[in-house]
Q: What sequence folds into this?
């Protein structure tokens, strides 16, 4: 029979396979319109997808002009890649979309918007031609001035004001990354609704990233735990990449700063991977090793991976290698932190550790996202609402799973901190409190005495009473140490009852106690307080083994009348108490020079 750990591993593998299969089925089964020759723009339909009518032509060497492209229309071919994607193409590519603007009942048609909702496309020269002659043109793309866009939108959009008739849309596209081209003709109202919905979605995404970033930084400020900084680095990298992919960065953050537009994909990816190395290296490090065991080298391995990302980031920012090489590096390096961590968090899962489950969840989302995104970029999956947003949602879920790990670690740190504080308080209590009676011990009493001496004046004196239990040795010897302890506890209780709320009772050790009485106005008042302490023990004390009658010998000194020194006033009170012992016990003696 399989063990519980084996069954857990099998179940998790099945869950991973089901998730990947479900995602794959969702993106593959999305409706893909059939190919046709000419697109008919009719007002009855607010959105027309252009891809079924697309043919493409790739420039071989020299850039083509519009006239060259029109002359080569016979060489344009149907794309062999999946819907709305041409994969990665280093050369510029021309797209042709033949379309017809239809008039209804002799009324000129309404305006249209040509929209390509994939912001990372670098340069797009858009032309509308009729019978081979240019009718409209626009310069679009992330590496062109934002202000020059016909519509100041996140996507690449061009308004069309056309009379009824047949036209060709000619697009010359350059991109350092994937050529994903979800070209649509949209009625203005439909375009604005879609743009608003997309902006809302991207706003939520940006807001979540900012919230997670602020949470991690706030936790770091509160705890100084480096794990939160590592998580912040991970989130920052993912955030930068999301800003680029969504077009929000070019629209609002680094508008017309083309260096950022060219480099932000690589920067975001390397920062995110480096942060993942650091984060997992910290979370999965073995914190408690058996004596004599070898040091855990896993954190060193993960820190080395993060250092490699840092070196590559520096080299990339100096433009010492191109985007194609960077893409290959990211494809190899991206999954490496999770692959290296896989044995450790699977071990945690098998042991029922919640952190292992969260990490497995993150791994699952990451694998599903990478498969869908990479396959779409290479032109093997259709570019549709599922695949174009898979990276966004997958990355958010991936980061959210890491957030759950962080919350679990924060809870562990909080509990560890509370345990440490409790232990510190216990140790402090043991250092400053008498364990038998719960009274302040000699150290604590000395601190309280030093503080009380500062405020002592001739009008409000401090009386320091040194008390010795007269019959303690006899009780201890006759009835045993347990009875002696009972006696000391009862002496403590009676002294606490007798003194004022602002007075201090302490045990020096053995059967010696100290009472600090502040605000004493005269010698007579101090003497009266001493006799009140004696009167507490007129009644006998009931112990578990006997009833005993005891008395006290009390010696006291006054500050500042006698001295202002801690050691000195205790010595003077001790001298007075010793004189009382010599004089017959059960009495009160004031120190006299």
A:
């Amino acid at each position: 029979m399989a063990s519980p750990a084996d069954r857990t591993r099998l179940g998790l593998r099945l869950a991973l396979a089901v998730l990947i299969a479900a995602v794959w089925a969702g993106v593959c089964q999305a409706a893909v319109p059939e190919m046709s020759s000419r697109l008919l723009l009719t007002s009855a339909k607010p959105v027309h997808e252009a891809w079924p009518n697309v043919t493409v032509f790739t420039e071989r060497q020299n850039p083509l002009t519009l006239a060259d492209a029109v002359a080569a229309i016979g060489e344009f071919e149907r794309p062999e890649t999946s819907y709305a994607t041409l994969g990665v193409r280093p050369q510029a590519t021309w797209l042709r979309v033949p379309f017809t603007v239809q008039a209804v009942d002799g009324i000129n048609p309404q305006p249209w918007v040509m929209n390509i909702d994939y912001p990372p496309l670098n340069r797009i020269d858009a032309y509308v031609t009729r019978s081979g002659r240019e009718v409209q043109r626009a310069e679009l793309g992330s590496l062109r001035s934002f202000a020059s866009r016909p519509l100041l939108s996140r996507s690449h959009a061009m308004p069309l004001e056309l009379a009824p008739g047949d036209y060709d849309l000619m697009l010359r596209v350059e991109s350092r990354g994937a050529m994903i081209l979800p070209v649509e003709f949209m009625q203005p109202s439909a375009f604005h609704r879609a743009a608003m919905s997309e902006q809302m979605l991207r706003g939520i995404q940006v807001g979540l990233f900012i919230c997670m970033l602020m949470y991690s930084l706030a936790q770091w400020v509160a705890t100084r735990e480096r794990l939160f900084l590592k998580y912040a680095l991970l989130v920052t990298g993912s955030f930068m990449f999301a800003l680029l992919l969504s077009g929000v960065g070019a629209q609002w953050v680094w508008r017309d700063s083309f260096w950022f537009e060219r480099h932000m994909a690589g920067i975001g990816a390397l920062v995110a991977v480096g942060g993942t190395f650091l984060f997992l290296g910290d979370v999965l490090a073995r914190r408690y090793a058996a004596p004599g065991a070898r040091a855990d080298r896993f954190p060193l391995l993960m820190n080395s991976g993060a250092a490699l990302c840092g070196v590559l980031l520096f080299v990339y920012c100096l433009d010492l290698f191109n985007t194609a090489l960077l893409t290959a590096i990211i494809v190899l390096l991206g999954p490496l932190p999770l692959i290296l961590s896989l044995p450790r968090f699977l071990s945690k899962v098998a042991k029922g550790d919640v952190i292992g489950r969260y990490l497995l969840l993150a791994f699952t989302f990451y694998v599903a996202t990478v498969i869908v995104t990479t396959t779409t970029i290479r032109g093997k999956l259709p570019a549709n609402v599922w695949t174009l947003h898979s990276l966004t949602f997958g990355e958010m879920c991936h980061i959210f799973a890491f957030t759950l790990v962080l919350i679990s670690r924060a809870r562990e740190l909080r509990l560890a901190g509370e345990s440490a504080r409790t232990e510190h308080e216990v140790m402090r209590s043991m250092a400053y409190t008498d364990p038998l009676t719960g009274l302040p011990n000699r150290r604590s009493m000395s601190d309280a005495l030093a503080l009380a001496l500062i405020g002592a004046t001739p009008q409000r004196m401090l009386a320091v009473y040194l008390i010795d239990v007269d019959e303690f040795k006899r009780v201890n010897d006759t009835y045993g140490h347990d009875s002696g302890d009972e006696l000391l506890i009862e002496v403590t209780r009676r002294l606490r009852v007798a003194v004022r709320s602002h007075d201090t009772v302490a045990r020096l050790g053995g059967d010696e106690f100290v009472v600090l009485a502040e605000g004493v106005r005269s010698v007579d008042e101090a003497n009266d307080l001493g006799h009140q302490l004696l009167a507490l023990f007129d009644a006998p004390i009931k112990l578990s083994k006997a009833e005993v009658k005891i008395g006290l010998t009390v010696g006291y000194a006054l500050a500042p009348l006698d001295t202002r020194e801690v050691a000195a006033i205790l010595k003077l009170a001790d001298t007075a108490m010793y004189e009382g012992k010599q004089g017959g016990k059960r009495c009160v003696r004031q120190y006299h020079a």
About this structure: The two ends are 90 Å apart (CA to CA). Residues 24-35 have pLDDT under 50 and may be disordered.
